[in-house]
Automatic annotation (TrEMBL):
Residues 15-70 form the HTH deoR-type domain. Keywords: DNA-binding, Transcription, Transcription regulation. InterPro entries: AgaR-like, Carb_Metab_HTH_regulators, DeoR-like_C, DeoR_HTH, NagB/RpiA_transferase-like, Tscrpt_reg_HTH_DeoR_CS, WH-like_DNA-bd_sf, WH_DNA-bd_sf. GO terms for molecular function: DNA binding; DNA-binding transcription factor activity. Coiled coil: none annotated. This is DeoR family transcriptional regulator. It comes from Serratia oryzae.
Length: 269
């Protein structure tokens, strides 16, 4: 919590001044928390999240669980750990996974990108038969161990312990001689103009290769990932064939996706 030596007092201030003072806190502390800022400035958490979204679009901050981190141009953005990601919006991810897994039929060849939503898809594939699944995610592979009707392929490569995912030349080469019916692409950030992006350059490169060898690209993401962009672009939004998300997606994003010819499925509806 902030003390009396904080940058400002609790008088009512305007949006621009509040955002300037949030920037000062980011520079001083390296990170800020939504609840702390809400209490300090006597505004709603929604207002603070809008402030942080604005600062992220300006390249000043990168949002993280419960707050935001300073975006230092000299260092890559800080990526939340897999454990932190797993604790976020779990019920939504499971709802999305239930929709996604219904798309997988006998005879299908699928790629499951590394990630927490694709992990939930893998958990539901234990009763599937005559399916080939390739993944670069160690957690996803572990979830498929009990799926006896699924032939499991791993990309191999170098392990990123931060995300329990494999990357590198070996992973790229393992994909180039295959053709898949669909790719379930986990999403760190998705924006109608900036496309689909992720924190890590090597993972972005591997994700692009996955998109090249898949007939259909299906983005699986909860609505909190919209209007966000990470440093490394994967693909333009128009390359995506389907988005499976939750009903909290904004009307603007929903209409924008549909205008781009993308089928949108809302989990739970």
């Amino acid at each position: 919590m902030y003390n009396s030596d904080s940058v400002t007092d609790k008088r009512i201030i305007g949006t621009s001044e509040r955002r300037e003072q949030i920037i000062q806190r980011l520079r001083q502390q390296g990170s800020v928390q939504v609840n702390d800022l809400s209490a300090f400035f006597s505004v709603s958490t929604v207002t603070i999240r809008n402030d942080l979204a604005f600062l992220e679009k300006q390249g000043i901050a990168v949002r993280a669980y419960g707050g935001a981190l300073i975006c230092d141009p000299s260092t890559p953005p800080v990526e939340p750990s897999l454990e932190d990601k797993s604790s976020l919006n779990t019920s939504l991810k499971r709802s999305i996974a239930r929709v996604a897994v219904e798309l997988i039929k006998p005879g299908h060849r699928v790629i499951l990108d590394s990630g927490t939503t694709t992990y939930e898809i893998a958990r539901l594939m234990r009763q599937h038969k005559d399916v080939i699944a390739m993944t670069n995610g160690m957690n996803v592979a572990n979830a498929l161990l009990e799926a006896e009707g699924v032939e499991l392929l791993m990309t191999g490569g170098h392990l990123r312990r931060q995300s329990l995912s494999f990357y590198g030349d070996q992973a790229d080469q393992s994909l180039q001689n295959y053709h898949f019916d669909m790719l379930f692409l986990g999403v760190d950030a998705i924006d109608l103009e900036r496309g689909v992006s992720t924190h890590n350059e090597d993972e972005a490169r591997l994700n692009r290769r996955m998109c090249e060898v898949a007939e259909r690209i299906i983005a699986v993401t909860d609505s909190s990932k919209f209007n966000r962009s990470s440093l490394h672009k994967i693909i333009d939004i128009q390359r995506v064939h389907m988005v499976i998300t939750d009903s909290d997606i904004s009307a603007e994003n929903l209409e924008g996706l549909r205008r781009s010819g993308i089928k949108v499925v809302l989990a739970g509806k």
